[in-house]
Amino acid sequence: MSIKFQKTVGIGDAAIVTGVSQKQLRSWEGRYFPDPDRVVCGERAYRRYTEGDIELIQKIKAYRDQGYTLEAAAKFANKEVLKNA
């Protein structure tokens, strides 16, 4: 049996890599991209973003930078990611 491990990053690193603020990421999650996985440590739960999450966020930001509304940018980015999957 083979187990595949996937590297994840926290919200701070995701914000740095994507150029999207932590506040924006929290606002966008659940509406424009799926909620990230969470790791529970005691009473706290920490967001963990996968490579796929990062790629989707970067695509949304790229469309936003081109002048699209957030809703349109998320729609186009999600279609692009699904098409490439």
Question: If you had to describe this structure to a student in words, what would you say it looks like?
Answer:
With 85 residues, the protein is mostly helical. A two-stranded antiparallel ribbon has the order 1-2. α3 crosses α4.
Distance between the termini: 24 Å
Secondary structure tally: strands? 2
Query: Uncertain runs with pLDDT below 50, 5 residues or more?
Result: none
Strand adjacency order, main sheet: 1-2
How confident overall, as mean pLDDT? 90
- Rg on CA atoms, Å: 14 Å
Q: Determine the number of helices (DSSP H or I, runs of at least 4 residues).
A: 4
- Class from secondary-structure proportions: mainly alpha
Shape, principal axes of CA atoms: globular
Tell me about the largest β-sheet.
2 strands, antiparallel
Helix content: 40-55%
The arrangement of helices and strands along the chain is HHEEHH
The portion of residues forming beta strands comes to: 5-15%
Layout of helices and strands:
Layout: H1 11-18, H2 22-28, E1 37-41, E2 44-48, H3 51-65, H4 70-84
Antiparallel strand pairs: 1-2
Helix pairs in contact: 3-4
